[in-house]
From TrEMBL:
InterPro entries in alphabetical order: Acyl_CoA_acyltransferase, GNAT_dom, MshD_Acetyltransferase
Keywords for this protein: Acyltransferase, Transferase
Listed GO MF terms: acyltransferase activity
Sequence ranges assigned to domain N-acetyltransferase in this UniProt record: 3-164, 190-349
Domain of life: Bacteria
Name the record gives this protein: GNAT family N-acetyltransferase
Enzyme Commission numbers on file: 2.3.1.-
A Pfam short name: Acetyltransf_1
Organism: Vogesella oryzagri
Amino acid sequence: MNYHIRRLAPGDAAALHRLRTSPGVVRNTLQQPFQSLASVQQLVDNFPPHIHALVACTPDGALVGCGGLHLAQPLRRRHCALLFLMVRDDWQGKGVGGALMRALLDYADNWLDLKRIELDAVHDNHGAIALYERYGFLHEGVARGFNLREGVYEDAVLMARLRFRPGEHAANPAPAAAASPLPRRERQPFSLRHSELGDAAAIAALMAQDAVQSNTLQLPYPDERSWRQRLGAGNLGLVAEAADGSILGNAGIWQPGDNPRLAHIAELGISVHPAQQGSGIGNALLTALLLQVSHYLPYRRLQLKVFCDNAPAIALYEKFGFAREATLRGDGLRHGAYHDCLLMARAVK
């Protein structure tokens, strides 16, 4: 059957509601089993500009599938998008998914020039995994306990399709050279405390160090205002403070989204001033964060990304029980090339 592919429109709310609440869709995606029609109408009326959603319709106009590209928000990952796909239960196996995949990949390649399309699939959704494999998606790893489904935290298969031009993908990245080597200063005593709004300028200065920002997804030339906004967002943040009040390290945890089925997941980030790396600051920050999460917060899975060539950071995370779950190829832009990252995670409950 030939399906008509078009952009999702506000008038599709009722049909999209039926699709999103289909039992098979709920089971194999991150949808909730009970959703109000009003909430779906609000979604399609205010669809975010960074999400491009297409629908598949039968010749008589029935909406039987929906798929889309969720563009990554960090600017150093603007070459990436997360693909999602849903097909109504009674239209499974009739070519709807294939029609949407062809349209989405054409859109990604020829109109958005995306380099990396990624997705996650519940481990036992074999039909979807086979579909993605047919369209060039390769397995990159498994995220353990990723998706809450019917009371069980299920694993997710992580897959991606790359479209880099020659020389763009640093498949075997070498350590990035700093603009000018920093001499290691004498180890300074420090104490830990919660970050405050008044720390914004000092944290921005820490992130301005090339050896720090290049190993995160931060941009060069960070400004105090943006860090003040981040510190005011209500996430758990810690700083390592020297006796003179200078900030030697910064760490935080945050939730990657607001989906209730991912509410057990938190992400982690740690940065230490280059001149104080190896002095125990990262160890102390990570110990404090894990204690807080384990004893006082509801998260069950703590995850992070780290560039594959950042050996000291990887060793620190492995020391604290983080396991390598996936190699995300070409995940982050650094010094003009797309570098691989590791997804690492550990259970905290």
